[in-house]
Amino acid sequence: MAELTLVEAINRAYAEELRRDDSVFLVGQDIRGGIFPHTMGLVQEFGPERIVDTPIAESGMYGVAFGAAQEGFRPVVDFMFGGFSYVTFAEASVTTGQYYFLHGSQHPLPLVITAAVGTGMRLANDHAMSIHGTFAHHPGIKVAMPSTPYDAKGMMKAAIRDNNPVVIPWHMGLMQERGEVPEDDYIVPLGKAAVKRQGSDVTILANSVQLKHALAVAAKLEGEFDVEVIDPRSFVPFDMETLLTSLAKTSRLVIVDEDWESGGFAATVSARVMEQGFDLLDAPVIRVTLPNLPVPGGYMEEYIAPNPAKIEAAIRQVCA
Amino acid sequence: MNLNKQQMRILYRNLVRADHLNRMMYQRMLQGKLIGFYHPSDGAIAPGVAAASFLNKDDNLSPHHRGHGITHMLSKGIDIKYYLAEHTGKDTGCCGGRSAFHFSFPEHKVYMMSGFIGYNFAPSVGWGWAAKRRNLGQVVMNCSGDGSYGQGRAHEALLMATNWQLPIIFYCENNGMAIHSEISEMHPTEDVSSLAQGYGMPAMVIDGQDVFACAEAALAAIEHARKGKGPTFVEAKTLRIKEHDMGTPDLRGWEARSEEEKLALMQRDPLVLATTRVLAEGVLKQDAIDQLHEEASREVQEIEDFADSSKIARPSEEQLLAAAFAP
């Protein structure tokens, strides 16, 4: 088994799916050369007909994926930075989300939206914002996000094979994260959470870079608190069963989400836990999120982003 | 490109059918027998008939929203009864009664309608990209109005279609009005198709009241695209006799359009003009024309009977939730 970085794992997923299925192709802006390394080497093997660069025209670029998906292709459309998807958000969220259902559930729209997201590069809001919560708000679109190189390869392959629009953002803070990635063909099914650490005092639900932080905090607090850590992996569909099973054991929940406090994934999960698992709880749910501010750039980014100190404080508060 | 008599008869027949169906929709809206709204196509049916009558089944078509695409769809061979059933909320509708006025006939490559004017430009690039990649001679007929060219998406599609020499026909049905605003106020040049020059795309301006002129232009553009020679811009200058949307005021700017103005527009009704021509050129005799009208009336009756005898779609919330994602 090879040890790969997260972007190398995504690259493997692309290459394997491009080889397996002639209807798969990638479209984006400068993905042949590459702003990020996840598409490196693909144009040399698959040619510019399948690794497609467009002008800086997000609607037209997205239209290539959307129209080709209606025509039976399986495109992956790369927005480079997640914030750039907002340039054509009417198409990417509304038109995409409604296409299958509103038109009578007769014709699938198999496409993957991907982009780099997250804090850590000090690039400020439009280059740092998360998109998973906003896409998850729009019905008809699946949303998942890898936290490990293993998941990155398997999740991207699952998304490419899915008959629905699937959004797979990946966090820039994990670009060089290394991990074991099998060379064989496997998928990570969309909609299955992963219990990353067993514990009995408190459950932390955390994803991508914040999962890494949560696991570090859990290790640090060993002996003081027995922390269970769950990676949701998929936001739509969301694996509520795994979370409720965990809460039946721990009765306490901290949700860490690198999205805004208002209207985000953490808010949704918190409300669902109140509706479906209120009797399991011994304390109110605590969320560790971005405050409701446009993400500042420069050194200020780290003043507001969720981090290990904030996660530890939340654990102490919910267990008090 | 000269049309033969058989082609002229096809166009004339579809024009008669489009005229009858537009009247049906108008009447049903007045009678409260249509869900939502209706944007009448009076005076503006020639460009759609011409654009769609000679497409192949595997050519992509995005209809103009005026007349809710009925003109274009019937000309492409789509049975409109499934659309009327949809527009009346019935379970036999083309979208199972879920969509109000939206349509979807994927097997005819009329994939969707969106409430966003100009939605057609971005997916057209994808359809054109797919057609070029398959190299089977498929074309994309992208119909929309003058107003839709206000969208930045129109620029993106024109740019990418020309860059990649995609088989797309940008078919602008210019009726000179976007809701209440005159195109002269919203667009800086007389012809919307002058945009094409900036992309190095061939363009034609034609009389949108003359279904035969429209068809000659459409056929030339279709042939050009089928041969892999890239996109064409076709601008059909048409008009709008009735209001933008039934029940809203019929204005030019912020003042009511005069009856004289509308009477003058009616003189240029495409069916009146086409009838004069087919009679003069011996393409059809009066009794054949009368028969086409009788057939169209029967078609309207069958469409209405189908929709009216269908049941209102009443799925449960659970059934709808189960249909949200493709298996």
Task: List the defining traits of the structure above.
heterodimer; A: 320 residues; alpha/beta; Rossmann fold; seven-stranded mixed β-sheet; 38% helix; 22% strand; B: 327 residues; five-stranded parallel β-sheet; two-stranded antiparallel sheet; 13 helices; 11% strand
Task: Explain this structure.
The complex is a heterodimer of chains A (320) and B (327). Chain A is α/β, with parallel strands linked by helices and 320 residues long. Chain A folds into two domains: 2-181, 3-Layer(aba) Sandwich (Rossmann fold); 194-318, Rossmann fold (3-Layer(aba) Sandwich), CATH 3.40.50.920. Chain A contains twelve helices and 14 strands. In chain A, the strands form three sheets. Chain A has a seven-stranded mixed beta sheet with strand order 3-2-4-5-7-6-12, sandwiched between helices. In chain A, α8 (209-220) packs across α12 (308-318). The longest helix of chain A is centred in the first third of the chain and has 15 residues, at 6-20. Chain A is globular. By secondary structure, chain B is α/β, with parallel strands linked by helices. Chain B has a single domain, classed as Rossmann fold. Helices cover 45% and strands 11% of the residues of chain B. Chain B has helices at residues 5-30, 46-52, 70-75, 81-87, 121-134, 152-163, 183-186, 195-199, 211-226, 259-266, 270-280, 286-309, 317-322; strands spanning 60-62, 140-145, 168-174, 177-178, 181-182, 203-207, 232-237, 251-252, 255-256. In chain B, α1 packs antiparallel against α11 (270-280), α1 packs across α12 and α2 packs parallel to α9. The relative contact order of chain B is 0.16. The mean pLDDT of chain B is 97.
